[in-house]
Amino acid sequence: MEKEVDVLVVEDSDDDYEIVSHVFDDEHVRYLHVKNGPDALRYIFSASPVVIFSSTDDTREIGQAYELGANGFVVKPMGFEKFVSTVKAISM
Question: pTM value?
């Protein structure tokens, strides 16, 4: 399956983006341009499921990850069963 986007370009300067886009075009690199970090994260989260592996078990941080769009959160060290159940949950 061919990728839709090879590079996600996050650039808020139109002048800098123009230079970047010419290089990518010349090199036949497919790209998507967004102007800021939040738009980049929205694209990333919409394009692929996101699972965060972290050593924190702070419920506020875990909740924030889900609020920001994470599909799964696994606290390390993790058991194999937890990992498998998380993968199954995001692949449905």
Answer: 0.52
